[in-house]
Structures are given as C-alpha cells and as structure tokens.
Amino acid sequence: MDVTASNAITRINLQELIRLQADARALKLPSARPARARQSGLRHSAQRGRGMAFAEVRRYQPGDDIRSIDWRVTARRQAPHTKLYEEERERPVLLLCDLGPTLFFASTGAFKQVRCAQLAAILAWLALAGGDQVGGIVFNGSTLSVQRPARRKKSVLRLLDTLASQQRTSLDNTATDTTLDSALGEARRVAHTGSQIFVISDFLNITDNTPGLLGALARHNSVNALRVVDPLEQELPHSGRFAVAGPEGPVWFDASSHSFQKAWAEKINRHEARLADYFRLSGVQATTVSTRDTPANSLKLILGPGGRIG
C-alpha cells in the first residue's frame, strides 16, 4: 500500500495503521532485500537482543566449544563439563513513539507525528510476525501511555489504538512533563534485559539528561533511534516569505534574508552536533527518516534480510 496516496497527511487513524500490516508482510518477502543505507543501520552485537539462554550442564564431549566449559562444575566433579545454550524464542520489542508538539508539522509528505505512528505500527507488525513480544510507550506532551510487551495480536491492536488516539490535532499550551526524557526513564523501568528498543522521535527536545537516559537503556538492551525530520528543518528555501505555526500563532520569516539564513544554519548545526554527540556517548545506533519518504521504504534500508528486526 502506498501510504502517501491515502489521506493520512496530518493524522492517521486506527484502520490505516492496521492496514500497514500489509507493508510489514511485504518487507518480510525474500525479494525485499536491504539496500546500503547512508545512515547507521540497526545492526548490533550478537550479545544483545535475541540471544542464547542457558539450558543445562553436561560432560564435555569432543567437538564442544572449550569456551563453554563450566570450570566450577569441572573442578567440583573432577571431569570436564560444558554449558549448553538454546536460542531464545522470543524477545521483547519496545517502541517509544513521540507524538509531541514539534511533530505536528511537515512541509512535504506527511506530518512527523504520522510518520512516527506509521514506523511504530510497521515495526510492531514485524515483531509480532517474528514471534517477539511487542510493547510501547506513546507520549504526546500531555499524556504518556505505557503498554508492557506481550506476544498477542490484541496487544499490537491496543498499541495501534493508542497511536491513533494520542495524535495531536492542534498546537496548544497544555504540555506537561511527558517528554522524551520522561519516556526514556519509563522505558528503563519497563524494559527487560535484552530487549530491542526503538526510540521514534524528531529529537528536537533533547536535554543534558538525554544521553545518560539513552546510555542506561543501551547498557543492557539493543537501542535504535529513528529520527524523523522534515527537509525544511535541514535547509531553508533561498527566497520567499513563509509562515510557520507557533504556540501563539503563525510566525513569518523572509528566506531571502542573509542574516536569517545564517542564524538558522548555525542553530541547526549546533543541534546536529549536539545530537550526534549524544548518540555517540550513549552507544545508540541512529537513522534519519524523512517525512517525504514512505515508512516502508525507509525501513527497507535498515532492517535485516526478510524484514528481520535487529
């Protein structure tokens, strides 16, 4: 399904998020091979995410990996013993989805809040199809909703309903402390060790506490940042007068003003450098997704073969 052909430009409803299951199925087809992305992908060390769970200890047999020898049992029983592991069959996938005031915007494609909801929906369907548990934290500046991971279609539908119902329809001054930092703090309480965590946001409201919160999550989990941006946020047009919505009404600017262009570029460069440092310090993989691109195409560049998460 071509999402941009739908009416989901400023807001997306539950039915449209459910229909994105078809996009998830298409990503899992063998022909949906990942292309080489310019940004960092979503690959992590095998020591995180889906791993190996301890099963039992038995006597060492020729061909066993000597790195798996249990030296305490070997010393106690005076005979070599090795640990056996089995692959974990499911893994919690936690989706943090930002629908805050800064995401109620786009100059092309669809609003950032729509793209965030679409990315979260496709990832939720992919995780469920892969046998993983799915949960989420949805926050919009005034409300924060938490759903613990579970491996049931009903849980995915409940998460999609939250994504649809908590999208903003206007800019207002009712924002509380349900920001990115508060969501990251909540994720630390909800996530089990070894979880796959996706933070889907525009990351415009980062603070000095953000890298510490991201790093605390990344120490025991696989954390990926999907940063949704609009082309206008990266580079202004070179001429013309434009209006941007603000809390107190539209704000006009003259793109032909050299001083305005310079001040804008400096602000963007400072934020980009700061955000890059935060991702580097916290050990989080980051990928940029544009509002002009469909989420399925964006994810195709960063998922593993057959739409594999992680």
UniProtKB/TrEMBL annotation:
Residues 56-273 form the DUF58 domain. InterPro entries: DUF58, vWFA_dom_sf. Coiled coil: none annotated. Signal peptide: none annotated. PANTHER family: BLL2464 PROTEIN, DUF58 DOMAIN-CONTAINING PROTEIN. This is DUF58 domain-containing protein. It comes from Marinobacter adhaerens.
